[in-house]
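Slide 14.
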Amino acid sequence: MIRLLHLSDPHFGAADEATAQAFLARAKELAPDLTVLSGDLTMRARRQELRDAKAFYEQLPQPRFVIPGNHDIPALNQPLDRFFRPFRRYRETFGKDLEPSLCTGSIEVIGLNSNRAFSRDLDWSKGYLSQDQLDGAARRFGPVSPGLRVLTLHHPLLAPPDHRRDVVKPLPPLLTMLSGSRVDLVLCGHFHQSRIGTVAGTSEWSSIVSQAPTVCSTRLQGEPPGFHMIHLDGDQLRVVLHRYEGDRFMEDSSEIFRRDETGWHVLL
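Slide 15: predicted structure.
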């Protein structure tokens, strides 16, 4: 049995301390084999926000894995940092590598940085990946999966039915890479809404997507804070949504998937 804890978007600077502490207590009880935080640790990458985010991150169960989100880039009131050194403060706090890799036991994880300091689009919060990034990720995945092959980025792949914001772009080449590398699981966040499903590229392979809600931010999008707990047992994987209720996190709902030669499929 492999147990992976996926959280996202704590947004220190707009985080609820009681919720954060309740999560840390629950995470300790769950004792996962790996903890993954998929970006937006802060609101504006202010130094105090980063210090608070680092203190929170260091209390997560080990081993742990983190990537930046678009809010981990300084805002426009810090133009030099925003345009010329957007990830300097994040790197000083969480390490230089914006696209880390980790292989621990039966889990192989690769991170991609989908955040941009600016773009031709008026909405600079949108996520983008280059072909070089996708090609690099394909090379970084080993020839043989150790059991669970995971890609982590901040921006989502699945758009909720009532959500008008864009998913990561360009999506078709990303799906092709997922299929070609036989990625089992994609972890992301950004929308502050829980979504669990599958995606498939042009080849015959489908991957599971875990889009976690915000874990402790006050910036809610129609649902309470939460996180996903992922359980892998052979060729069966269960994603459990935990929601904050009152003063604690409780199991809410789950999706079960089974793996065959064409990838992952919902078990009805």
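Speaker note: The longest helix spans residues 17-30.
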